[in-house]
What does this fold into?
Amino acid sequence: MKDVTIIDIARKARVSTATVSRALNGLPGVSEQTYKKVHKIASEMGYRRNDVAASLVKRQTNTLGLIVPAISNPYFSSLMVAIKKRTLSFGYKLLICNSDWDVELELKLMKSLLERRVEGILLYPCKPVSDGRYDSFESPILVFGNNEKDGFCRAYVSVDNYKTGQLAVNHLLDQGYIKPAFLGGNVASLSSFYREQSYRDVLKQCHVDVPDSFSCGGKYSIQSGYERTAQLLEQSDVPDSFFCANDLIALGCMTAITEKGFRIGADIGVIGVDNVIYSALPQIELSTVAIPIELMGLNGVDVLLKLIQEENDENDKTKQEKERSVRDSIILLEPELVPRKTTQRAVL
Amino acid sequence: MKDVTIIDIARKARVSTATVSRALNGLPGVSEQTYKKVHKIASEMGYRRNDVAASLVKRQTNTLGLIVPAISNPYFSSLMVAIKKRTLSFGYKLLICNSDWDVELELKLMKSLLERRVEGILLYPCKPVSDGRYDSFESPILVFGNNEKDGFCRAYVSVDNYKTGQLAVNHLLDQGYIKPAFLGGNVASLSSFYREQSYRDVLKQCHVDVPDSFSCGGKYSIQSGYERTAQLLEQSDVPDSFFCANDLIALGCMTAITEKGFRIGADIGVIGVDNVIYSALPQIELSTVAIPIELMGLNGVDVLLKLIQEENDENDKTKQEKERSVRDSIILLEPELVPRKTTQRAVL
DNA sequence: GTGAAAGCGCTAACAG
DNA sequence: CTGTTAGCGCTTTCAC
It folds into this structure.
């Protein structure tokens, strides 16, 4: 059951492979007649184009890579959907990878994508790339979620993580909570880092003092949020509110609170980050800080595509021009507070 | 910035490309010395293997394709995660595609995957493949969610959709609800079809009569569930319970019920299908019929891999043996009722 | 242990 | 409009 190739078609159609190639690709310079003949024979023989061979000779795969830390997290689902849509509209294929918050795996995936000759990579790193682990990678790479410019020039699309934390903690304080705890996400992640930073800063500014144990890292999952909250609520000194590094953690947090017999909002406030679709459900009504994730995705694709474009035009360009290339661009989007029931002290 | 190839390495190391290839791939027949030399030079020159070229000559890509109808649906997220893990453990790469419930797009994706020479495809079709639209595809294909054997031999991994519906509707009736409505999913989908079928059958068996308007199709989304429920609750004759074709629909359904001022469970019962992670949250406590989706994924990969294996061994095999190949295999998994609060008439 | 040579299936000048 | 030719970068016999 050997695959049929354009050679087989050429033989049968009594033309050259070049002509077959042209006809099959709809390129100019083929008579109506041969065009039809070739296509007819091709479909008769059940020909299926071999993209691998085409990619090799054309030296392009028309493919982008995307790496996210957790494919099943609805936040990243939204990102994937947005990116998928955008890349598709530009005629690019997308290779989706899941790093599972594992830096080693992430590195492997990066290499693998490059070996497969993707034209560019959209990377949502599991920890800041400022350690320089990708500095030697020459291909176009767009990094999500970093909001600092580090040594190597690279394009970023991110949200203001520090401000995100400020919005959340200030809201908690505004609502009359006085002992907020912080449930971080993956310890290494930049977003979690900045959110904790702002948590500490805001508390200090407002002269609010809480035990160190109120701030703890973990995983960005419901389970992790549940476990950590349950533990904190066991202690003698109990927090009166939780700032969770994402909505999943907050969901787990709420479960633990409910189980312990506290009333959410009235007794203990909860606020998350992301504004995942499930947070808006009337049974949940989770207060949160919304991240414009779809927008990040769209922007990311656009910037990456520009990056690729530049790469291709590299020859006809002065060094001067290169300086203000998009390689150094940082797009920083704004988070937005979405107050809901879980931070409402009294039912009005 | 031309890529460095094994030719460059060979030249620099003063060996042949064959030797470089062997060394880089860790194949036997290379002296310790040359092995080291080649690797050293390779990393010095920043060599990056070109998988496209390797795939072409080896005629294998070590890649599987996966097509799901909705990448952001948590049900499919779970499937993807399970499949990803399994394929990775076998050293296969995975190409994930989103058909967006669009048959045309699905077909395109199938073709595209084949052109990229994936070795096999895991397909969760947006509508039954019994229309024969893939009968001419010769590559190994594993179909999820079909539970009937159709004309063409093909391997299936599915859940008993009919039984799923029976479990749900019987549970509703058992709990004392007497006017269940059915909120279907994507009209064309087999799962929705069977679930509606069983809905009708069970009602008939139990001599329960409901208006035709109680059964309606839509999309497998929160939004769609919300809209349809809101509409049904406007009518004079109101259902006292909802059997939703999946949990997302049920979530939207619950929102609408709450908004209208009904109490979930006490006034109106709701049951979904899938047992998505969010359904278990204490604020939700959605009764549902659990589908062993991870298991489906694992089984799917295993069967597909066997299929591929067979394909390769095809030469040394009699026709007799082919008859009982896995090509015809159907794996049918069991759904399981998970009763929770949303179908509890009275608070005990 | 190593090299020479023949492709994998397709595209892209360059001629005609 | 069509054919010839020369690869794309790598693997793999088959000799040596």
Summary: Chain A has twelve helices and twelve strands. The longest strand of chain A covers residues 63-68.
